[in-house]
């Protein structure tokens, strides 16, 4: 099955002497350069993780707009924006502007969010759950409003004495980018959340961990999640076809530098642990020579079921090395598996 293949950067920076990204400026500028390099290599997507109160990418829209201005073909996205922190109307303005700059290439991943760096960090941004609700309820309410305004329908009463002439009727959020509503993804951590995602008409984004465990290998549990999503989508009867992405850590070993960095990961296995107070299953890292990778990845049922594969890249190793990882997979692995 032919697949869209992109990278997912967590956008870390640190002042470690081994890091090629020593500051926020380094990460932002290198992220743009890596997206340009990925497009030149024939990759299909440049995606960025969003974390607040951390030495990582926290304000995605300036970066997405900059990548959109420097590229012409590659999809540009997030994986994922924590909706607990977001003003949905302001976010719709930012997203519309970034999508128009990119010519309709934005693929926006959103979610309830992941474990935080600080306690209830969303409260510092001015948001708190209403009585009888928790932070997940608040994130879903922010999402509901966001999805509604992306439809481009007017809802705001115009002033009788406006500064500029208004079109007739109620006013909508501007700028509006037609089609963006169908390019919103939800980062789902469970099978049940995947079904909810389908009911809302959002694409499914599934990462390298699931916040549940049934005892089966990670890729099988994730494949079941995808199957449930697609059934729920069919039952909902939306008017467009959904997309599904999965993330993986995959490192083809084709140079001695690759071997030095990743040969220890060749024996990686799934792990079961605790996340946010619950049991979670974490997928393994794939690291091997290309022929071995082809055999291993051919057995991954979730990758087979998805149309989009996002490669988690070690961004602190620098643009050149991350581009090398992408090129190695696109050249030595993807064609052998029918992804290209």
Automatic annotation (TrEMBL):
It comes from the Bacteria. GO terms for molecular function: monooxygenase activity; oxidoreductase activity, acting on paired donors, with incorporation or reduction of molecular oxygen. Keywords: Monooxygenase, Oxidoreductase. The keyword Transcription regulation does not apply. One of its GO terms (cellular component) is cytosol. The keyword Oxidoreductase applies. Residues 7-259 form the Luciferase-like domain. InterPro entries: Bact_Lucif_Oxidored, Luciferase-like_dom, Luciferase-like_sf. PANTHER family: BLL6902 PROTEIN, LUCIFERASE-LIKE MONOOXYGENASE. This is Flavin-dependent oxidoreductase, luciferase family (Includes alkanesulfonate monooxygenase SsuD and methylene tetrahydromethanopterin reductase). It comes from Jatrophihabitans endophyticus.
């Amino acid at each position: 099955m032919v697949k869209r293949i992109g990278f997912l950067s967590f956008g870390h920076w640190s002042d470690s002497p081994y890091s090629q990204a020593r500051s926020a400026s380094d990460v932002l500028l290198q992220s743009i350069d890596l997206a340009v390099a990925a497009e030149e290599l024939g990759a299909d997507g440049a995606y960025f993780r969003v974390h607040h109160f951390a030495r990582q990418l926290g304000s995605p829209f300036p970066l997405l707009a900059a990548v959109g201005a420097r590229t012409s073909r590659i999809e540009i996205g997030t994986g994922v924006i924590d909706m607990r922190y977001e003003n949905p109307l302001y976010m719709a303005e930012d997203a519309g502007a970034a999508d128009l700059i990119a010519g309709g290439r934005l693929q926006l991943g959103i979610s309830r969010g992941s474990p935080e760096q600080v306690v209830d960090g969303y409260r510092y941004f001015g948001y708190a759950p209403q009585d009888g609700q928790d932070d997940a309820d608040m994130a879903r309410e922010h999402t509901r409003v966001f999805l509604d305004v992306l439809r481009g329908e007017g809802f705001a009463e115009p002033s009788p004495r406006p500064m500029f002439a208004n079109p007739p009727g109620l006013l909508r959020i501007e700028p509006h980018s037609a089609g963006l509503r169908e390019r919103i993804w939800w980062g789902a951590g469970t099978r049940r959340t995947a079904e909810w995602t389908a009911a809302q008409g959002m694409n499914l984004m599934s990462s390298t961990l699931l916040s549940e465990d049934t005892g089966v290998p990670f890729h099988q549990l994730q494949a079941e999640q995808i199957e449930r999503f697609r059934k729920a989508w069919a039952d909902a009867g939306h008017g467009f076809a959904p997309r599904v992405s999965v993330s993986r850590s995959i490192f083809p070993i084709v140079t001695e530098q690759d071997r030095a960095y990743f040969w220890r990961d060749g024996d990686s296995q799934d792990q079961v642990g605790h996340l946010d107070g619950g049991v979670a299953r974490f997928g393994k890292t794939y690291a091997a020579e290309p022929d071995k990778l082809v055999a291993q990845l051919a057995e991954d049922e979730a990758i087979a079921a998805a149309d989009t594969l996002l490669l988690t890249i070690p961004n602190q190793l620098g643009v050149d090395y991350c581009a090398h990882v992408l090129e190695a997979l696109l050249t030595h692995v993807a064609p052998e598996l029918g992804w290209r």
